[in-house]
Design brief:
By secondary structure, this protein is of the alpha/beta class. The chain has helices spanning about 10-25, 50-60, 80-85, 100, 105-115, 140-150, 185-190, 195-215, 230-240, 245-255, 260-285, 290-325; strands at about 25-35, 40-45, 65-70, 90, 120-125, 155-165, 175-180, 185. Helix 6 packs across helix 8 (about 195-215).
Length: about 325
């Protein structure tokens, strides 16, 4: 099996499409804050509020590869494990998975160190679980161990990151990614010679937690602006053209117990069903007397229709919520 950090042609081919689907999932994504390190190993430490979408917005921030950590239980099936490996995702065992399994992390730590040694950034959601709230959960031990271990072998930076959403549940909202000042792990170790390794890692974990908490916006970014009246002229056509995608997404979302996964489901339906939708409409249009340039023009509009449908639904939700508050 290829190393996580090694270049993969299929991954490189699919990556632009995945990033495009991520950007289409939001009305706007804004990346701001401190300048990212240009040398050494880089570890991103974002908060975790919106399931897979958190990883996708981090991935879309830069053109190069980024490796991620995810809970180990989803790697139990070999086929799933191979797919996750292809996506540059490594298993991370949590304490609640059982202390007898925590030692399995040492193998993952070796792979993460290998990733960092080859100048591929690693992203770890240090809270260990997602929660759709605008506050930080306690940071687990793993992020400090990984950073400390990397710093023993190379220059290492940790970038505390705040991911803030206008809504955790409404598709096509606003997302802001705020990069905090990179923490120089090597310098941090040198500044605390009096601490032994466990104490140093605890101090590092506390510092990371404080820096991450400062980047979590308790209000969240403002929602997208009210759509133009022109949206309502094209909305029925957009809803019709993208019907297989958004209808499937909403049926699946109704069955989800954890609603924080709904935007991930909607992203997945766009990613998987857009090519199929284009193929279906392409065949249908070819059976009509439309000229070839008319067919291509109609097909070119279909990728945008999915987002337009949700822009309209969000506007209707806003009106409905405003009406309920006025009662």
């Amino acid at each position: 099996m290829a190393k996580i950090w090694e270049q993969n042609r299929l991954y490189s081919f699919l990556r632009p499409y995945v990033d495009w689907c991520t950007r289409q999932s939001y009305h706007r994504i804004l990346y701001w804050g401190a300048e990212l390190p240009k040398d050494g190993a880089v570890i991103f430490a974002p908060n975790h509020t919106n399931t897979l979408m958190d990883a996708l917005v981090i991935l879309a921030a830069r053109k190069g590869p980024t490796a991620f950590g995810a809970r180990a239980d989803i790697f139990r099936k070999p086929a799933i494990a191979r797919i996750l490996h292809f996506l540059r995702i490594l298993p991370m065992v949590r304490e609640r998975d059982g202390l007898e399994h925590v030692s399995e992390n040492y193998e993952s730590f070796d792979q993460i160190d290998d990733v960092l040694a080859h100048a591929v950034p690693f992203c770890m959601f240090a809270e260990g679980t997602h929660r759709p709230e605008r506050s930080l959960q306690p940071v687990k031990k793993g992020i400090a161990r990984i950073a400390y271990r990397s710093a023993q072998n190379r220059q290492t930076w940790l970038v505390p990151t705040g991911i803030n959403y206008s809504s955790f549940f409404d598709y096509r909202g606003v997302c802001e990614v705020h990069y905090g000042e990179p923490l120089n792990i090597n310098e941090f170790v040198r500044e605390h010679p009096e601490l032994n390794e466990p104490q140093l890692q605890q101090a590092l974990r506390s510092t990371i937690e404080k820096r991450m908490a400062a980047l979590v916006d308790p209000e969240g970014p403002a929602a997208a602006e009210k759509p133009s009246w022109l949206l309502w002229l094209v909305w029925p056509l957009a809803a019709f053209l993208s019907l297989p995608m958004w209808l499937t997404a909403e049926i699946l979302c109704r069955k989800m117990q954890d609603k924080a996964w709904c935007n991930t489901v909607r992203f997945g339906c766009l990613l998987l069903f857009l090519p199929l939708t284009l193929l279906i409409w392409g065949i249908i249009f070819c059976l009509t007397p439309l000229p070839w340039y008319g067919i291509l023009s109609l097909l070119a509009t279909i990728p945008a229709t999915y987002g337009l449908v949700y822009d309209g639904l969000n506007a209707l939700k806003t009106v409905f919520r405003s009406g309920r508050r006025m009662k």
